UniProtKB/TrEMBL annotation:
Annotated SUPFAM superfamilies: NAD(P)-linked oxidoreductase
Pfam families: Aldo_ket_red
Keyword terms of this UniProt record: Oxidoreductase
Species in which this protein is naturally found: Circinella minor
Active-site feature positions: 52 (proton donor)
Residues the entry annotates as binding substrate: 114
Site entry (Lowers pKa of active site Tyr), positions: 81
One GO molecular-function entry: oxidoreductase activity
Similarity remark: Belongs to the aldo/keto reductase family.
Boundaries of every NADP-dependent oxidoreductase domain copy: 25-304
Keyword Ribonucleoprotein: no
Record-linked PANTHER family: ALDO/KETO REDUCTASE
Protein's recorded name: NADP-dependent oxidoreductase domain-containing protein
Amino acid sequence: MSQQDYATLNRTNDKMPLCGFGCWKVENNIAEQLIYDAIKAGYRLFDGACDYGNEVEIGKGIARAIKDGLVKREDLFVVTKLWNTYHNKNHVRDAFEKQRKELGLDYIDLYIIHFPVPLKYVAPDQAYPPGWYPPSGPQKLEFERSPMYECWAEMERLVDDGLTRNIGISNFNVQAILDLLTYCKYKPATLQVEIHPYLQQKRLVEWVQEQGIQITAYSSFGPGSYIALTNDGKTASPLFEHDIIKSIGQKKGKTPAQVLLRWAIERKLAVIPKSNHEERMKLNRDLFSWSLDNEDKKQIDGLEKGLRFNGKRIVS
């Protein structure tokens, strides 16, 4: 792995690949084979979550790749996330252990708090993954009094016990991060947040990087993933079809997806694209042998619209 392929995490100095494979919306019936194929294609970081509901299958894909000699466990960087209903200090470890066992791993490389939103506890035998709303009753968020400082202390204990090497956060804003930094023993290693040309989050990125926290950008391709969820994706032109992105791709001999991912990499952001197609998997990883011109970046920077497609699903 060359110097430009990875980000070095605080505290552990672990090398996190800058281009990983995202497991959101990976269907269970293809997940095992897809992860196996992604490992064959060269992916070493896999970004999952309790909420995605596919960790058993992801674990099987990883196990098969290790058994077949494609990789060793230490070659992989596995990320997963604590769901909102498990923020209470009495539930963090049980939630983690269930996920670790479903993945079939001795340890996790990076465990992330998915949202700074403590929801009422839902037992796994009631619903798993539990989702945003109670399994019965009205579709209404039910919060619980589980303060972040107690949740984070439990995350730190997972580190102390050797169960996860790194801990991080997702969908936190500056205020939430600043509060966490006033009491944490271990600073978050990473922040994962929505970033694409329509939502560039320049001030957030600059401030978080100044704190020594690495950033992973999700939804690098913009609105497409959200049309089926909220219709929010229809509020902007698809980035793959945008004239500026297409023209830069044509000039560089790259796909629109590669242009969007390279734009993020040049901001020192990690990316986690997903594809069901082996050839596109390979193309999405081809980000380090070429670069964007200053004029290319200037044009892409001009696409900022402040459009947050995940906005209806989070507190931000």
